[in-house]
Design a protein that fits this description.
- It is a single chain.
- The chain has 14 helices and 18 strands.
- The model has no long low-confidence stretch (mean pLDDT about 95).
- The radius of gyration is 23 Å and the shape is globular.
- α1 crosses α7, α2 packs across α6 and α3 crosses α4.
- It is of the alpha/beta class and about 450 residues long.
- It has two domains: about 250 residues, Aldehyde Dehydrogenase, Chain A, domain 1, CATH 3.40.605.10; about 180 residues, Aldehyde Dehydrogenase, Chain A, domain 2.
- α9 links the parallel β10 and β11.
- The structure holds nicotinamide-adenine-dinucleotide.
- Nicotinamide-adenine-dinucleotide (NAD) binds next to α7 and α8.
Length: about 450
């Protein structure tokens, strides 16, 4: 079946894509299973070289991939360039892995004991629409490095860059059946990854709702699984912080990618004694956040991904919502929504509890450190967060007390390919990136050799 891919900027048709059915998905999985056997036998240095060549091909195509993402997903050109470069970096980082995927030698009586990190087999990577390039690579790069074959399903709305990346990897020498991108419906192609026994692991990024279904489906075959799900992260500003810097950086921490970011700091917790002053600093920063044509170099925020997503976001800003101030957004064609600040918002309000996945920030005041921690943890999610303070002891105390996988102090950094990324509670299971990711794409095998002592 063919599916039209729309530009969220002007609603024009960018491409028409053939989506796979179950039979075509099964055939691709079968090819991947066969190819994986040979891929796992490729000498580590050669596998490494192929990953480096793929990284170089993606680097050479940076502008092409970035422009494709601007059209398909409405990302700003500066973000899209970073995203394509992130794919290069993740491939380069894991290109070092095939030669360093060590097992252990464990002292035992009567012989020698060795562990091997074996590939799992075929890995199914399921990707959401919000960061199509980076999230694809966080799955496929370590999976390939560890000797697995990958079948990857991009989101229905944003398949174009993943398709192009697979072509580039193939041209760089990675066998085409070892890394296949299979566009299609989640309920058809994605779900077939879950039910087909030849797919031995699912690496899913998306909503908590779909993640739970996938987890239940994987239980049937005790299929290996990592989940990167939703978030409702807190940006906590203490009275002793550099308030000017905290206020000038807060908009990007929630409005970047139009708020369609699992790490978006969509709850802003401000110490009551500086609440008014902080909001007076925040207002001009929000109002000057540049929203518009994503291909312009200075644009900071583009449109939302779809009409449906815009309607969902708007439902949080309807009558009764406490809108403190808003930025601006273009009108006319395209799925635009202005940066919006709700303040103050009651902790029980749905804007404070649910992942909006749009440019809407909820502001809450707190009285002391203990209350800030309690509010930050009062959510089923636990993905990211920021702490602004000049007191180093407090920075550590609060960082240790917050139930979340990735925190930053006096900055809004979340995803760094050198370091583990993933969620506590209902934000996920397992970790991606950094040195930890390889474990999740390997099976540990223990071999004992009797020496007859
Ligand atoms: P989604 O859950 O609707 O879809 C994600 C992917 O799963 C898509 O490719 C979709 O086609 C597929 N899918 C849908 N139903 C399926 C099924 N029954 N079986 C198999 N696959 C299925 O999510 P979305 O709307 O594309 O993305 C937004 C969500 O992703 C947000 O909740 C966001 O927080 C989350 N996200 C999390 C991270 C993270 O690293 N934690 C990163 C980015 C996005």
């Amino acid at each position: 079946m063919s599916q039209q891919v729309l530009s969220p900027v002007d609603e024009s048709i960018v491409a028409t894509i053939e989506e796979l059915d179950v039979a075509a998905t099964d055939a691709a999985i079968e090819r991947a299973a066969r190819a994986q056997v040979a891929w796992a036998r490729v000498a580590p240095a050669d596998r490494s070289r192929l990953l480096i060549r793929a990284a170089e091909a993606i680097d050479a195509a940076n502008e092409e991939l970035a422009l494709l993402e601007v059209r398909n997903a409405g990302h700003t050109i500066s973000n899209a360039r970073w995203e394509a470069a992130n794919v290069r970096d993740v491939l380069t980082y894991y290109s070092g892995a095939p030669e360093r995927n060590f097992g252990r030698q464990i002292p035992v009586p009567g012989g020698v004991d060795l562990t091997f990190l074996e590939p799992i087999g075929v890995v199914g990577v399921i990707v959401p629409w919000n960061f199509p390039m980076p999230i694809a690579s966080w799955g496929f790069a370590p999976a390939l490095a560890a000797g697995n074959a990958v079948v990857l399903k991009p989101a229905e709305l944003t398949p174009l860059t993943a398709i192009r990346i697979a072509e580039l990897c193939c041209e760089a020498g990675i066998p085409e059946d070892v890394f296949q991108v299979l566009p299609g419906k989640g309920s058809v192609v994605g779900w077939r990854f879950v039910t087909n026994e030849k797919v031995r692991k699912i690496c899913f990024t998306g909503s908590t709702e779909v993640g739970k279904k996938i987890m239940a489906g994987c239980a049937e075959q005790v299929k290996r699984l990592t989940l990167e799900l939703g978030g409702k992260s807190a940006n906590i500003v203490f009275a002793d912080a550099d308030l000017e810097e905290a206020a000038s950086t807060a908009p990007a921490s929630v409005f970047d990618n139009a708020g369609q970011d699992c790490c978006s700091r969509s709850r802003l917790l401000v110490e009551a004694s500086v609440y008014d002053r902080f909001l007076s600093l925040l207002e001009p920063a929000v109002k000057s956040f540049e929203v518009g044509d994503p291909s312009a170099e200075t644009t900071q925020m583009g449109p939302l991904i779809s009409a449906e997503q815009r309607a969902r976001v708007a439902s949080y800003v309807g009558p009764g919502a406490n809108v403190a101030f808003q930025g601006s957004a273009p009108s006319g064609k395209g799925f635009w929504f202005p940066p919006t600040v709700l303040a103050p918002v009651d902790r029980s309000d749905r804007a404070c509890r649910e992942e909006i996945f749009g440019p809407v920030l909820s502001v809450i005041a707190f009285d002391d450190e203990q209350e800030a921690i309690e509010i930050a943890n009062d959510t089923p999610y636990g993905l990211s967060g920021s702490i602004w303070t000049r007191e180093v002891g407090r920075a550590f105390r609060v960082a240790r007390a917050i139930e979340t996988g990735t925190l930053s102090v006096n900055s809004h950094s979340s995803v760094r390919y050198w370091t583990p990324f993933g969620g506590f509670k209902q934000s996920g299971l397992g970790r991606e990136l950094g040195p930890d990711a390889l474990e999740h794409f390997s099976e540990v095998k223990n071999v004992f050799i009797r020496t007859g002592e």
